[in-house]
Amino acid sequence: MDRPVYALAAAPSEPVVLRDFFESGPNSIMALLEHPPAFRSSGWDLSTATTPRIAGGEYLEAASGDEKIVRLYEDGTLLARAAADTFLAWPLSREQFHQNPRLNTLAIVEFTTAFVYFYRRLLGKFDAPPSSIKFQITFQNADLGGKKIYVRPYPVLSTGWQFDIEDDDGPIEKPNMQRDIAILASEVAEDPNAAAYTLVKELFLFFCIPPNKLPYVKEGDPRRVDITSFSKR
Amino acid sequence: MTEEMKYMEPSDPHSPVRDVLASGVFTRFLGMREGLHFEAKGKVPYDFTTEAGRYELAKDVTAFANSEGGHIVIGLATKPVADEKTDEVSALEYADNGESLKSQIVGILKEYTYPPVKDLAIEYLPANEDPKVGLVSVYIPLQDDDRKLFLISKVFEDKQEVKRIVVGIARRSGGSSVPSTAQELYVQIRDGRSSIAQRLARIEAKVDRLFETGKQPAAQRPGDKLAQRIADLLGGG
Q1: Which of B13, B91, B101, B237 sits at a 20 to 30 Å CA gap from B33?
Q2: Is A158 helix (H, G, I), strand (E, B) or coil?
């Protein structure tokens, strides 16, 4: 059985180039990939604790084994893949997840938001500013032999997350799902939490969860991911 | 105006653990979470009677040495926490053979790691309430970059020693010690840690792209290639 994975992609709408793409050094793109933005220690972000490599003479890649892979191309295409049955299932083991395939809501929201923050850091490194960014979110192999991956739309450790009180678990609609979302580059730069909300909203729609029930979201106009809620310590 | 990320490392990331160890009030460890600089281990953390157990110790110590240093504290039970990708200390589970554990650790690290970790400090700290039991602290200071990478000189797969000429490299990632895969090791060895090999790889990449650009009749938007790139990523390619 193929491993269930969650993938995020982003690419500029115009042909642009990341300056000094293959250079190394403290402020280089390589350094950004090695030390990506994080909201806290031990959260769900794009860090892999490895030194990025040049792959195929074409892109940079940083990977934590098969659990998390991040690729960046000179034309600004950013890809991130995370294993749904370990990285996003925490604290369940892989075996436990196959019995009860529930995703950690904080993991998927924080990882998605960290992806947007990473892209925000890239925006200042293009030779010309792109006008908009095409994002894509993908779930693949989300049916584990008849058991569908699901989310319970509450913050982890909350009562609602621990007990299925309102019977509102959301199984993914189809094993393979993908959605394209275009967001203005200015929004990514100036309001990344609103941009992240747009992606998170679409992600939860895969699980038929309505936007007004999303955890880690701050109400307002526009709604935003509430990054202050990631760490309760 | 959006909120900025507020997470910042403390100025001395080793001080929270060091302060508790110095205070002798080990209950202050309860609820403390593992991270880049702290690993908690239970009463019997490694089975030193097996090669695999010794490998685990070497992996943990070299992972800290290859990152920013840190403490491994033996005698603390942990449980995973759901809102952070790490474990937290859930109970004191004192080691009752601290002194002997200390000397075993010294011997194993000598045999299983290379080069030696500079200024490694291993201490047995008896509990106030019963000096016959206590914690063992293994402190790995931040190492000079010139000495990295620290290697595990005996590697095990499926509890069997790999008999080829082979070493392992581990690093800290959040609250875990992560051994490098064979592919990552290959890249690190091939590219070295700096200079010529990496520069050659970059030049090669630029030359490839120049040829590629010359072949293209018009500039492609990155989005045009997105589908293929995602397919490669999902396919593990």
Answers
A1: B101
A2: coil
Q: Which among A48, A66, A140 has the least Cβ separation from residue B234?
A: A140
pLDDT score, position B1: 38
Q: Name all domains of chain B by residue range, CATH numbers in brackets.
A: 15-175 (3.30.950.30), 181-217 (no CATH)
Reported as a single tens digit per residue, the pLDDT across A15-61 is: 999 999 999 888 999 999 999 999 998 899 999 988 899 998 899 99
Q: Give Cβ neighbours of residue A85 (< 8 Å, ≥ 6 apart).
A: A3, A4, A94, A97, A98, A101, A144
Residues 180-219 of B with CB under 8 A from A: 180-181, 184, 187-188, 191, 194, 198, 201-202, 204-206, 208-209, 219
What's the rounded Cα separation, in Å, for the pair B152 and A176? 41
> In sequence order, what are the residues at sequence separation of 6 or more whose Cβ sits closer than 8 angstroms to the Cβ of residue B26?
B20, B75, B92, B125, B127, B135
What's the predicted TM-score (pTM) here?
Answer: 0.81
